[in-house]
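Supplementary notes for students who missed Thursday's class. We covered one full example, reproduced here. Read the sequence, then the structure, then the short commentary at the end.
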Amino acid sequence: MSADPDCLFCKIIAGEIPGDFVHRGERTVAFRDINPQAPVHILVVPRGHQPNAAATAADDAAAFADIAATARAVAAAEGYDDYRLVFNTGAGAGQTVFHTHGHVLAGRSMDEHLA
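Structure (token representation):
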């Protein structure tokens, strides 16, 4: 799997920067967001570096499926069957770390605007 030495999430995956991990799998990891937008806000990240969800879906559909499966598992482990899974793709959509990641959000009404 590829890694980018300048990527924040690659550094977290490698253990160079600490993360509050809730899942470590063969293809994905999941850790709590440091700026949560809901009571449960977990990032699901593929171990291989791709810049965004569109690139991962195009280059490695199995990795994209693993992100969705991991999201379901971590939401359930937190006690939620209902959750939101959000991907920001590109700076104009709010992506700030350019390594594919899904935001698992749960624990509040998703009818509210996300900040």
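Commentary. Strands lie at 21-24, 28-32, 40-46, 84-86, 102-106. The first strand starts at residue 21 and ends at 24. If anything here is unclear, bring it to office hours.
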